[in-house]
Design brief:
It is a single chain. This protein has about 400 residues and is mainly β. The protein contains one helix and 32 strands. The strands form eight sheets. It has a four-stranded antiparallel beta sheet, with no helix packed on it. A four-stranded antiparallel beta sheet has the order 2-3-4-5. Strands 6-7-8-9 form a four-stranded antiparallel beta sheet, with helices on one face. It starts with 19 loop residues before the first helix and ends with a strand.
């Protein structure tokens, strides 16, 4: 089954000449319609039915769900070997791939959206939309929703059954990863506004102006959603109405995404501190100072928070008392979110390595050098580890 139609030139189609004064006016129109042509193959249709509600194996968004739980039940027996490699011919942003019905979907910084068979590594198809994709897409029922860095038509919902764009929005550019909850889509824009749309038809539900660009991926927990901006402010909002419930200010800009579990909201700042807040009230419960800037979302599992930082370390702290359990040091920046499995912590670094570390003490259980920097959060799916590296290659590791 195909997720996206491969583009082929429509025979006889010609692009009309334009004078310079019309280029700016027509830019959005051309990008949008080029995107439609790439998806539909100049009039042909695409038939792939997705039912996100009936497949427990899907990972439909960055962090798996609205609360951004970077955990997986997989149990690994090391060492692992490369099962397949895929050449995407373009680099990747920080957002992890997603999985829909055994199809891996990932965007590139050249504006391509690739669909790959997760079991074999074979290309299913791809499309190009001419605007960088640095965040994770979202799968919602039959739709794939993609955030683009362009200044117009930068939130795009693609109906994969019809093979056409269902709706588009302009929210000033998107670099954070959108998420869905209860048929609602939440997305932060570089225009500084946090938006809520009907996930199916794109109808606007509400919007909240944070007063500064949004780079951090938001999250949700129960009836609340959370967002953070480049001025270091975090907001707790009512999911249905967008009403502000609380505001908390950190000491510096927020680029690392948010995660929420067990009534707590966790965020990390460029002031080298992790903030643990009561999710309902926004009250500060604890801070953990790690000594270096944090640009990626920490991961939380079984009362332990795993914190990556720009000094190349991954630290494991107790969330209840802030005590350091262990610290692992790579040879370069660690700018990806760790994934917590049943018997290992999976983390990737700009030192070219993907590591599997012991949950107990951080010792290395396995590592692999892909000979390229890694700045994209790994994906773990059914005892497979997927790494998208800066050399434009996707690697899948598993036990043979």
């Amino acid at each position: 089954m195909r997720l996206f139609k491969k583009y082929s030139h429509c025979e006889g189609a010609k692009r009309p000449k334009q004078s310079p004064k019309f280029k700016i006016k027509t830019r959005s129109f051309l990008i949008t319609n080029a995107f439609i042509l790439l998806l539909t193959g100049c009039g042909s249709t695409l038939k792939l039915r997705l039912d996100m509600n009936n497949s427990a194996d899907n990972i439909p968004m960055h962090g798996k769900n609205a609360s951004r739980e970077f955990t997986d039940s997989s149990s690994f027996s090391f060492p692992l070997k490369i099962a397949w490699e895929y050449d995407a011919s373009a680099g990747f942003g920080n957002g992890a791939p997603i999985i829909v019905n055994k199809t891996l979907i990932i965007g590139t910084l050249q504006g391509e959206l690739h669909a790959v068979n997760i079991e074999t590594g074979e290309r299913i198809s791809y499309n190009k939309n001419f605007s960088p994709i640095s965040s994770s897409p979202v799968a919602y029922k039959k739709n794939i929703i993609v955030g683009l860095e362009s200044t117009e038509d930068n939130l795009v919902s693609i109906n994969t059954e019809l093979g056409e764009i269902q709706w588009t929005k302009n929210i000033g550019g998107v670099v954070s990863s959108p998420f869905t909850s209860d048929d609602l889509l939440f997305a932060g824009g570089l225009d500084g506004t946090f938006y809520c749309f009907n996930a199916f038809d794109g109808t606007s539900q509400w919007k909240f102006d944070t007063k500064a660009p949004i780079y951090a991926s938001g999250c949700g927990l129960d009836d609340l959603v959370f967002c953070a901006n480049a001025e270091g402010n975090i907001f707790g909002l009512d999911k249905r109405s967008g009403e502000k419930k609380w505001k908390f200010s950190t000491g510096n800009a927020l680029f690392a995404g948010l995660t929420a579990q067990n009534g707590k909201l966790i965020t990390a700042s460029r002031d080298s501190t992790v903030y643990i807040l009561d999710a309902v009230s926004g009250k500060l419960e604890r801070t953990i100072f790690v000594g270096n800037k944090i640009m990626s979302t920490p991961a939380l599992s079984n009362g332990i928070i795993y914190i990556p930082s720009l000094d190349g370390s991954l630290s494991a702290y107790s969330i209840s008392d802030g005590i350091l359990h262990w610290k692992f040091q790579t040879k370069n920046i660690t700018n990806t979110t760790p994934i917590i499995t049943s018997n290992a912590v999976i983390v990737a670094s700009l030192d070219h390595h993907v590591y599997a570390l012991s949950l107990d003490d951080g010792t290395v259980l396995w590592k692999y050098d892909v000979e390229s920097r890694i700045k994209t959060t790994p994906l773990v799916w059914q005892n497979s580890i997927v790494i998208a590296a800066e050399n434009k290659t996707i690697y899948c590791f598993r036990k043979e």
